[in-house]
Amino acid sequence: MTKKRKGTPVHGWVVLDKPKGVTSTQAVSRVKRLFDAQKAGHAGTLDPLATGVLAVALGEATKTVPYAMDAEKTYRFIARWGEARDTDDAEGAVTARSDVRPTREAILAAIAGFTGTIMQSPPAYSAVKVAGERAYDLAREGETPNLEARPVLIREARLIAQPDADTAEFEIVCGKGAYVRAWVRDLARVLGTFGHVISLRRTRLGPLSAEAAISLEKLETLGHSPAALEHLLPLATVLDGIPALAVSGGDAVRLRSGNPILLRVPQYERLAGHEDFGRTQTETDGQGLTVYLSTAKGEPVALAHVAKGELRPFRVFNFGTRS
After folding, report:
1. Coil, helix or strand for 233?
2. What are all long-range contacts of 265-268, with beta carbons under 8 Å and residues at least 24 apart?
3. Which domains does the chain carry?
4. Do strands 290-295 and 300-307 pair parallel, antiparallel, or not at all (unpaired)?
């Protein structure tokens, strides 16, 4: 007998403006409790020091978390020069000091080497796994985790301001896996000094912006009222970059049962102009172009791969008509 899940079947995304001093896990737990949701998760951890966009997925929206995780992110932050910290942010212990303070000209020149695809070693205090354990757990136990450098994308990086000789404010647009703390740490080394992050705010995650986010304080003021549900966004909110197709009621039933369906003529015509569509017609392993399927009424049905003239579901959404 299947154990009944506690809570209400609530599905969708909440764009939270996470406050400073709260962990991402704590924020998700509070949102889950406010909506009495059966299941919750988030797309991209923000450190306790950081504020800004924390995308919280409820119910079936948790199945779309990987797509939000892959989205580009924008951060605005302040670096302090002259001190290295073991966490690479203001919460850590000082490990080294320098009297060198970089000039504006030196910073602008160095930034060029920290844009595009760069090699970056994650901070010792990070969620990266080493032999099955989180790096931050090893670091807290006094070990020095061996974190190899890996390629990350920094699409844009710019110096916003220099309030004084000790600090500089930046904004970067980056891809998955990039760490702002590591970026500052490495930039400081090239500038002949040390550096760490003292203030960090995520202003955008894919299509989700800080301007559209709701504070945890306001959300908790709304409580379990209908007004809180106005801040629950559709499951497909984070799927902007994925082609969308409508399916009939009968096909929706088959797809939700995990069965493939034939690609209909209108669907074929809609996808024909997509740059990856031609390649998917020869795929046999079901790993072709990904599409989002919904009913004519907009009810989420599944995520599917296009292959050999079929729509093959690999992620199915099961929750009646609410999205």
Report:
1. strand
2. 267/311
3. 12-71+207-237 (3.30.2350.10), 73-205 (3.30.2350.10), 242-316 (2.30.130.60)
4. antiparallel
Which has more confidence, 3 or 64? Answer: 64
Kindly provide the b/e burial profile for residues 242-270, where b requires at least 16 CB atoms within 10 angstroms of the residue's own CB. ebebbbeeebbebbbeeebbebeeebeeb
For the whole model, what pTM was predicted? 0.88
Tokens 């942010």, residue located:
89
pLDDT per residue as tens digits for the range 44-57: 889 899 999 999 99
Question: What residues act catalytically?
Answer: 47
* SS3 label, residue 85: strand
DSSP SS3 for 1? coil
Other CB atoms within a 10 A radius of the CB of residue 207 amount to 16
Structure tokens at 120: 């970056």
As a whole-number percent, the residues of the chain with pLDDT over 90 amount to: 69
Question: What angle do helix axes 104-111 and 180-190 make, rounded to 10 degrees?
Answer: 120
- Type of residue at 125: Y
Both tokens assigned to 204? 């955008």
